From TrEMBL:
One Pfam family hit: GFO_IDH_MocA
Annotated Gfo/Idh/MocA-like oxidoreductase N-terminal domain residues: 114-188
Gene3D superfamilies for this protein: NAD(P)-binding Rossmann-like Domain
Key words of the record: Oxidoreductase
Gene Ontology molecular function: oxidoreductase activity
InterPro entries from the UniProt entry: Gfo/Idh/MocA-like_OxRdtase_N, NAD(P)-bd_dom_sf
Protein name per UniProt: Gfo/Idh/MocA-like oxidoreductase N-terminal domain-containing protein
Keyword Zinc: no
C-alpha cells in the first residue's frame, strides 16, 4: 500500500537546494508499517494562505488539477499550495487510467515546488499560516471531506460546486461550519465573470430587457461521450454544469424556490437522454436544456446549457420586442490570446478550463486573501447562496424533465 503521505527520493536533493529548515523528518505508522517521511513545517509565507487541495483529479481532466496548476504557477499570490490530498490516484487508482500521469505530475510538483502529496486530511500537521481547504473532489465525498477539513484547523473552506449531493447535506455542512467559526465560500466563478457584469450593466439601460445566460461544454455528441459525462457527473446537469447559471439567478435575479412563479422549458432546443455510462449503468440527464423562469416579484431570466455546444459561454440581452441588442462572450477578444497560449501549453486539457481561466484565478485569490486578512471576498458566493442554488436545482430538475417527456 502507498503511505498516507509519500515522497520520492528526489525530495532529499530538493530539500538541500531549497532550505534545510523547510522540512523536518518524522516517523509515522501507515497500515501498521512504520514509514519515515518528510513533513513540511513551513512553506506559505507571511501574507499567504496555506492551501490544502482536497480531490485533485486526473491531470488535464480534473478541475482540482487546474486549480493546482494556477497556484503552482504563482498566479494567485495570496495562495501557497502546500498540500494535495488525493486518495484515489495515490491509492486504488494509482495503476489504473490516469494513475501513471498523476504520479508523473505529482513527482514534478514535489521536486519543483515542494508540495506535499497525501491520501488523508487526517495526516496533516497543524497549520503554520492561516489554512484554506479547497475541496474539489467527487460531490458525493464532500460532506465527509468537509468535516475532516474543519477538524484539520482550516479557517476557510473553498467548496467547489454544487457542494453536496443534496440540499439537506449542504445545510448540515453550513451549520457545522457556522458552529466551528469556519468561513465557507463557493467556486461559482461566473459570479465574478466580466461577461456577466457587462451583460447585467447593459441590460439595466434597456427598458423591458431580457437576459439569457448560455453555457457550453465541448463533449462529443456521441452516446459513448455523453454516457461517460452523465456517469462522471451523476448529480445531473443542473447540479453540475448549469449550477453556475443557477447561482447567478439566485445572486442577481431574486430566484428562490419560493419566489418562482413559473418555469418553462424550450422544447425545440432541449434534449434529454438515457444512456449507459462506462460501468454499464444507465443515467438519464439533459444533454442540452433551455428554460425561462419568471419570479413572483416580476423578474424574468433564461438559461441555456449544451454539453456539446462548444467551448464558449455568453450572455444576450433582448429588448421589449424580443430583438437581440447585446451579446458578450467568454472569452472576449481581450482574453482569446490567453486561451490560445493555454491551449498550446496544455493541449489535452478540458477546453473550458481556458475560457474561464481568469475567473478561476480571481475567485481563488479573493478567497485566499480573505483567509489571511479577513476582508470580504468581493462577489464570491457564500454557502448560503449555494444552499439556495442547490434547492433551485432540485426543484427544476424533475419539473423540466416532466415537461420534456
Amino acid at each position: 500500500t502507498l503511505p498516507s503521505l509519500y515522497f520520492i527520493a528526489t525530495m532529499f536533493s530538493f530539500q538541500a537546494a531549497r532550505s534545510a529548515a523547510a522540512f523536518t523528518k518524522s516517523s509515522v505508522s501507515v497500515g501498521g508499517v512504520s514509514s519515515s517521511i518528510l513533513r513540511r513545517t513551513l512553506a506559505a509565507k507571511a501574507g499567504q494562505a496555506e492551501v490544502v487541495l482536497v480531490g485533485c483529479g486526473a491531470p488535464n481532466r480534473g478541475m482540482g488539477w487546474y486549480h493546482a496548476v494556477q497556484m503552482l504557477e504563482g498566479r494567485c499570490p495570496s495562495a501557497s499550495l502546500d498540500y494535495v490530498i488525493e486518495p484515489w490516484f495515490l491509492g486504488p487508482g494509482s495503476s489504473g487510467p490516469g494513475g501513471p500521469e498523476f504520479k508523473e505530475w505529482a513527482d514534478a510538483s514535489k521536486a519543483n515546488n515542494g508540495t506535499v502529496f497525501g491520501t488523508s486530511i487526517k495526516d496533516l500537521p497543524d497549520p503554520k499560516q492561516p489554512r484554506c481547504a479547497l475541496i474539489s473532489g467527487r460531490t458525493a465525498d464532500n460532506p465527509k471531506l468537509f468535516t475532516e477539513c474543519i477538524a484539520a484547523k482550516c479557517s476557510t473552506i473553498f467548496l467547489e460546486k454544487p457542494g453536496a449531493p443534496t440540499v439537506k447535506e449542504l445545510q448540515q455542512m453550513r451549520d457545522e461550519a457556522e458552529a466551528a467559526g469556519v468561513d465557507v465560500l463557493m467556486g461559482y466563478n461566473k459570479n465574478v465573470c466580466k461577461y456577466v457584469r457587462k451583460t447585467r450593466e447593459f441590460a439595466e439601460t434597456v427598458p423591458g430587457s431580457h437576459v439569457t445566460f448560455v453555457s457550453n461544454n465541448a463533449y462529443e455528441n456521441t452516446p459513448e461521450s455523453l454516457g461517460e459525462c452523465f456517469e462522471r457527473n451523476a448529480e445531473g446537469m443542473l447540479k453540475n454544469m448549469a449550477i453556475h447559471e443557477l447561482a447567478l439567478l439566485v445572486s442577481f435575479y431574486d430566484v428562490t424556490v419560493e419566489n418562482i412563479a413559473s418555469v418553462a422549458a424550450d422544447k425545440e432546443f432541449s434534449s434529454m437522454q438515457t444512456l449507459p455510462g462506462p460501468s454499464g449503468k444507465e443515467f438519464t440527464d439533459f444533454d442540452k436544456i433551455k428554460f425561462t423562469i419568471k419570479t413572483k416579484t416580476g423578474k424574468e431570466v433564461s438559461v441555456a446549457a449544451d454539453r456539446c455546444g462548444g467551448t464558449d459561454s455568453y450572455a444576450t440581452v433582448t429588448d421589449a420586442n424580443g430583438a437581440e441588442v447585446f451579446r458578450y462572450w467568454m472569452p472576449d477578444d481581450e482574453d482569446k490570446a490567453t486561451v490560445q497560449e493555454l491551449q498550446a501549453k496544455y493541449p489535452t486539457a478540458m477546453p473550458y478550463f481556458f475560457t474561464q481561466d481568469p475567473d478561476y484565478v480571481t475567485v481563488k485569490e479573493r478567497v485566499a486573501k480573505h483567509t489571511v486578512t479577513g476582508e470580504e471576498a468581493e462577489g464570491v458566493a457564500t454557502i448560503g447562496v449555494a444552499v439556495e442554488t442547490l434547492r433551485v436545482a432540485e426543484y427544476l430538475t424533475p419539473t423540466l424533465m416532466e415537461q420534456l417527456k
